Amino acid sequence: MVKQPQIGLLVLLQASSVPQAVTGPRGALGTRAPLSGRRLFTSPAEDKGALSDNHGASERPPPRVRKSIVHPRDVPSRTAWRSQVSPLLQTFKELKGHLLVPTDFEIPMDDKRWAESAWGYSLGLAVKRLRQIQRHSKNKLPDDLVEALDAMGFVWDVSDFKWTVIVMPALRRFHQIHGHTDVPRYFIVPQEDGDWPESSRGTRLGFIAMNIRVKKAFAKQAAASAEELKRLDFCLDGTIYDRDWNEKVLPSLEVYHREKGHCNVETSFLVPSTLPWPRKAWAMRLGIAVDDMKVRQAYTEQIARDKDRLIALGLRLRGQIPE
DNA sequence: ATACCCTCCACAATGTACAG
DNA sequence: CTGTACATTGTGGAGGGTAT
Q1: Radius of gyration over every alpha carbon of chain A, rounded to an integer in angstroms
Q2: What does the buried/exposed string (b/e) look like for A148-175 if buried means 16 or more CB atoms within 10 Å of the residue's CB?
Q3: Which nucleotide comes closest to A249 if you measure CA to C1'?
Q4: In the 3-class helix/strand/coil scheme, how is A261-290 assigned residue by residue?
Q5: Residue A146's CB: how many other CB atoms inside 10 A?
Q6: pLDDT per residue over A299-315, tens digit each?
Q7: Strand C contact at CB of residue A106, distance < 7 A
Q8: I need a labelling partner for A268 at 20 to 30 A (CA). Which of A9, A92, A149, A177 fits?
Q9: What is the pLDDT of residues A55-81, one digit of tens each?
Q10: What are the φ/ψ torsions at residue A210 (nearest 5 degrees)?
Q11: Protein residue minimizing CA–C1' distance to B17
Q12: Residue nearest to nucleotide C19 (CA to C1')
């Protein structure tokens, strides 16, 4: 029973020692972009600059040296975790600013910023092992070690960490800048822009926002942050179209009807940027929207749903709402 | 070892903006 | 009202990570 995790970790260790070669049987089918281009979150491979300072470290294969440090596949003694692994975590944090250690992260060879005895050590596996022990093993880590790791900022839950340190700060900044969080699909947090939280830079925020909305990614975290997401105008439930209809189009039509006594919106009509017009709709091209509702199938679903309200407003849409 | 979950991405269908 | 360019949604698959 004690043996099994060791076998599993050994396999992982072997796989991670040849990261670029692991294309697997499915690799032959793919014409996919290189892995590094597909990452939402930066990985150690992309952080090379920060570690090696462009010394061309990749030009020669790293020499294999004997590792004197405790092997991550072994269940380490408490003393070993504390005396040998903790200092490495501390160094990682100093270099990266966080402790989200990717599983395939190894201490770089010939890097004087790390203890020489640790060069080549799979710190990523060690971290994974720590998480595993704490989450699944009956023999939990001792409280004082957990506290020490906590104090260091150890990442026990990767999704929680990404949400708290990367996603939410980026959404908050996006909202500060744009006044909303309808992040365009291809928006990437600028890499070199000091205006953005450092931990979020390079993040494909558009993809993340879409996946949170459509695929319910980070569901647990989004639910816990529901209140703040609402304050940030993050469209969490349903589509952006539906939200716009409910918060902009329909309320604007209602004000239009109150003000003018009819709903014959001229094509060039812009929602005035004053009260009582709905603040979120200010400067919206309501005339174009109504035009599209008439001519195309814009907002079809919403029109069908709110047909009665539209009839009451006197809005005429051929085929959808009786003349 | 392996099943399952999550992230990332491509693609097609559909919706929107806007000039003419 | 039309044509066209562009944006968004929804779906499904690849592949890495996680749990057991």
Answers
A1: 27
A2: bbeeeebbeebeebbbbbbbbbbbbbbb
A3: B16
A4: CCCCCCCCCCCCCCCCCCHHHCCCCHHHHH
A5: 15
A6: 766 777 777 777 777 77
A7: no
A8: A177
A9: 333 333 343 433 445 454 444 455 566
A10: -65, -45
A11: A288
A12: A136
The answer to whether A61 CB sits below 7 Å from nucleic acid chain C is: no
Spacing of C-alpha A51 from chain mean position: 23
In this structure, what token pair is assigned to residue A269?
């009509």
- The residue among A263, A246, A256 whose CA lies nearest residue A323 is A263
For chain C, which bases have at least one atom within 7 A of a protein Cβ? Answer: 1-2, 7-12, 14-20
d(CA A257, CA A265): 9
When the pLDDT of each residue in chain A is averaged and rounded to a whole number, the result is 63
Distances (CA, A) of A120 to A5, A51, A61, A88, A133: 21, 14, 12, 12, 23
- Count CB-CB contacts under 10 A for residue A282: 15
Predicted TM-score (pTM) above 0.70: no
Token pair recorded at residue A61:
């294969």
Q: For A10-46, what is each residue's pLDDT tens digit?
A: 222 222 222 222 222 222 222 222 222 223 333 333 3
CA of A40 to C1' of C10 (A): 20
- Residue A59: partners with Cβ closer than 8 Å, 6 or more residues away: none
Question: Which bases in strand B are touched by protein, i.e. have an atom under 7 Å from a CB?
Answer: 1-2, 6-10, 14-18
- Look at the block and give the residue holding tokens 């006197």: A314
pLDDT tens track for A245-282: 777 788 888 888 888 777 777 766 777 777 888 777 77
Residues A177-187: what's their mean pLDDT?
A: 71
